[in-house]
Design goal:
Layout lengths: L21 H14 L6 H9 L3 H6 L2 H15 L26 H10 L4 E2 L12 E3 L3 H4 L17 E11 L2 H4 L8 E9 H5 L8 E7 L5
Antiparallel strand pairs: 1-3, 2-3, 3-4, 4-5
């Protein structure tokens, strides 16, 4: 949660199904359908999940987090009332509007995706091989207690720039509808021992994608 320890991560087996329960696929579908109305963006959707109360975040399964975040977004943007979540079976069926994503359009929409690359503004400040240090999430967030893609475990750590990916939408701004504020995006390599000390493997490293405002 926010880059804090959440216990061991157990990878799925290669033979695992995409959705381990039928409702997981429906949760993904409902999330995509709701987003098609254009009331929020991908970063706002992530932020809604990542700002769930800690006790809920820790006990919910993956798609339960999706549903909880979506419920909050629907209420926050006045698409439904909070009471509707309790009495949904008795709600009237309303006609679909012109922003409804029809089934025949889903495949082409998913194929297009949501590209985040933008026209470069200023020249990159850093280049491959440069030594950099990350700031803290508090230094990078645009809103107090807000959204940042910089994980806590990599905050205030030193690493090396591997790649420069050009200019991309800054989630820290976009999640709060403050504009896309595109910045240069870098892949930064950190030695595992610099992140976690002696318990990490000496030959291991972690690569984190960092926006320019995360680095100094």
């Amino acid at each position: 949660m926010g880059g804090l320890s959440g216990g061991p991560v157990l990878p799925d087996a290669d033979s695992a199904t995409v959705f381990s329960a039928e409702w997981h696929g429906r949760a993904l579908a409902v999330t995509i359908l709701a987003a098609a109305h254009g009331k929020w963006n991908l970063d706002a959707s992530r932020h809604a999940r990542e700002t769930l109360p800690a006790e809920d975040y820790e006990r919910y399964s993956y798609y339960e987090k999706w549903m909880a975040g979506l419920a909050n977004l629907l209420v926050r943007h006045e698409l439904i009332a909070a009471d509707d979540l309790q009495d949904w079976e008795n709600l009237p069926r309303l006609p679909l509007n012109d922003k409804t994503l029809n089934a025949e359009n889903v495949s082409s929409m998913l194929t297009r995706g949501g590209p985040t690359r933008r026209q470069a503004g200023d020249s990159p400040r850093f280049y491959p091989g440069d030594k950099v240090q990350t700031k803290t999430p508090d230094e990078t967030s645009r809103v107090s207690g807000g959204h940042t893609r910089l994980p806590w475990y990599a905050a205030g750590k030193s690493g090396t720039v591997l790649l420069c990916h050009g200019s991309h939408v800054l989630p820290d701004s976009n999640a709060h509808f403050l504009g896309e504020a595109p910045e240069t995006l870098y892949s930064v390599e950190f030695r595992a021992v610099d992140l976690w000390g002696g318990e990490a493997g000496m030959g291991d490293s972690v690569v984190v994608d960092c926006w320019e405002s995360y680095l100094k």
